[in-house]
Predict the structure.
Amino acid sequence: HIAWQMEGMDHIKRSLDALAQIGVKTEAGPGRQGVGGNLYAYFWAPGGNRSELSAEMPRVADRAAPPPIWSDPSTTFSAWGAHHPPSFVDGS
């Protein structure tokens, strides 16, 4: 999929409003990723590709630090408890 960097949640909301006006529906979100902690919203672009609106993407502060291990799949998609939609199984 392709991801678009947004300024923040207000920018994501305005973008989703504009997409809804032309008939594009949100696939998932808005929400906050469990892995990474960034804000997200997913939608299917008219050309058939999944697109993501993303904001507040954290940067790696210590490149020598070991990577975190995510062992609980229920927390990886959404820090707020949402589950990925069934359409995510199909990939993009």
